[in-house]
């Protein structure tokens, strides 16, 4: 089967007042980044990676976010 290599460039940033959030970037089960997001809107964290895809196979880009609890989130009580 034919394959194709794609290059990804993601810009990530977070607004926070206490602790930076964590993120993991995966394609299927292959992890390309796992760590804190410390970039700002003006200077985001830039992640660049390549992944080789096989024709006819489904793939999934996954962004797992973590590192925050209820005390670290702003909640709008008005719905």
How does this model look, in words?
The strands form two sheets. A three-stranded antiparallel sheet has the order 3-2-5, with no helix packed on it. The chain has a two-stranded antiparallel ribbon with strand order 1-4. Strand 2 (22-27) and strand 3 form a beta hairpin. Helix content is 0%, strand content 49%. The protein is elongated and about 50 Å long. The chain is mainly beta and 79 residues long. The chain has no helices and five strands.
Topology:
Elements: E1 3-12, E2 22-27, E3 30-36, E4 45-54, E5 61-66
Antiparallel strand pairs: 1-4, 2-3, 2-5
Characterize this entry briefly.
The protein has strands at residues 3-12, 22-27, 30-36, 45-54, 61-66. It is mostly beta strands and 79 residues long.
Give the N-to-C terminal Cα separation. Answer: 50 Å
Give Rg in angstroms. 16 Å
SSE order: EEEEE
Helix content range? under 10%
Mean pLDDT: 89
Question: How many strand elements?
Answer: 5
Roughly what fraction of the amino acids lie in strands?
over 45%
Biggest beta-sheet profile? 3 strands, antiparallel
- Kindly name the structural category: mainly beta
Strand order of the largest sheet: 3-2-5
Q: Give unreliable regions as ranges.
A: none
Shape annotation: elongated
